[in-house]
Amino acid sequence: MADEGTRQGDSESHEARPQPEIRMELVGSLPGGRAIAGVEQEGSFTWLASKEHISEQARGELMELFQRIVKEGWWVQDWPQAH
What we know:
single chain, 83 residues, 36% helix
């Protein structure tokens, strides 16, 4: 299919870029009753998720999705000289 070739070319260009490390940690609670909050450091992104709102199963499923998003090049962090 025509768009498969384009998509493959896109993935090749994304593979050359450094990919951020994505993590998710379950915590007791977050300020303001939030369910999830992101913490960014150069080269990594950690999601803090409240145990009150996010189950271990949901955490696993979300991590699979986040990792796919990064691998596919849909999310690219622009950290200067990250790696």
